[in-house]
Amino acid sequence: MVSAFRLIASDGAARCGELTTSHGVVRTPAFMPVGTQATVKGLEPETVRATGADILLGNTYHLMLRPGAERIASLGGLHRFMRWPHPILTDSGGFQVMSLAGLRKIEERCVIFRSHLDGATIELSPERAIEIQALLGSDIAMQLDECVRLPAPRSELERAMQLSLRWAERSRRAFESGPTDGRALFGIVQGGDDPALRFESARRLIEIGFEGYAIGGLAVGESAEVMRRTIDETAPALPADRPRYLMGVGTPEDILEAVARGIDMFDCVMPTRNGRHGVAFTRHGPINLKNARHADDPRPLDEQNSYAPARDYSRAYLHHLVKSAESLGAVLLSAINLAYYQQLTAGMRAAIVAGRFGDFRAETKAAWECGDLPAS
């Protein structure tokens, strides 16, 4: 079975759909928890699934280094290795081309990394990135690209965009030369904050042909205004019958605003990273559990929440765990935050189908304004 996308409903630019893979259906808009090293930090797969996640993200670069793609393949593939029998998307390592800039050299043929683990020299080409993702057995693979931190000169944006397009062609050829049953390959639109470069990247990626299209190179230093304007200018250039993935985004508001602009899929470390640092995301906005005002507060984070930990543990107890640096605090808040992100995307799906996404968007943003308020 080839991965296929079905558009169920739209409301303005907002879209609700289903992406069918050999490991299950992904409901869109979809948020993908980040499992960079074959784990969502601190959480069992069953816990992640219980938050409502349909799909996880893994990372080619990190799994290539440790434990190794060939080892994972010999152990039955990434789904079996991490005990997640549901869909998996793997990033190609393109983000590490930016984030590990001091440890790499970019050539036409490949990226040469000096391992951040032991200093060993590793080459990652478009062909090797596709090979690794095939060994991992991910349902959705990504082309290798070059991500540039913003702001950047137009000449640098264009150079990286053109290189990413050449790598997209090589990634596509490599993908089609191997087993593709039930798997998809997404192309990545680059071009920074330049609308002409973004349009050219999208046009040429469509000519190559991919099962889905990602917008990369955002949430890398630009303002929210620039990010949203770039989505406004890019999303309409992408095929309506293919999923659209905004890579590495973001805050709940970023996701809500991107869905309003036609985006279907997201990933970000924000819910789990913030959870590990004592911040809970709720329908009334973020709550910083480090704040002393919570020490004597018997209220839960949200008494109406369908996810039990958000409903059953008191703010006082969560504050105690955070201030005591107890690992349970990070575990509970990471799960609570993932559940909130899934509730947010589920609410958007229902609103789009009902034709009331605009109302949902306004109501959600109004509720966030309540913020971290003391008990009345």
Main sheet record: 8 strands, parallel
**What spatial order of strands do you see in the largest sheet?**
4-14-13-12-11-10-6-5
Work out the strand percent.
15-25%
Rg (C-alpha, Å): 20 Å
Q: What's the total count of β strands?
A: 16
Basic shape: globular
CATH class of the largest domain: Alpha Beta
Structural class: alpha/beta
Which fold does the CATH topology of the largest domain refer to?
A: TIM Barrel
Share of helix, binned: 40-55%
Low-confidence stretches: none
> What number of domains?
2
Tell me the name of the CATH homologous superfamily of the largest domain.
Answer: Queuine tRNA-ribosyltransferase-like
> What count of helical segments does DSSP give?
15
The whole-number mean of residue pLDDT values reads: 95
Kindly report how far apart the N and C termini lie: 55 Å
CATH arch. level architecture of the largest domain: Alpha-Beta Barrel
Give a short synopsis of this structure.
With 376 residues, the protein is α/β, with parallel strands linked by helices. 41% of the residues lie in helices and 19% in strands.
What secondary-structure arrangement, pairings included, does this model have?
Blueprint: E1 4-11, E2 14-21, E3 24-28, E4 30-32, H1 45-50, E5 56-59, H2 60-65, H3 69-74, H4 78-81, E6 88-91, H5 94-99, E7 104-106, E8 111-114, E9 121-124, H6 126-136, E10 140-142, H7 154-176, E11 184-189, H8 195-208, E12 212-215, H9 224-234, E13 244-246, H10 252-259, E14 265-267, H11 270-276, E15 279-282, E16 285-288, H12 308-312, H13 315-323, H14 327-354, H15 357-368
Helix pairs in contact: 6-7, 7-8, 10-14, 11-14, 13-14, 14-15
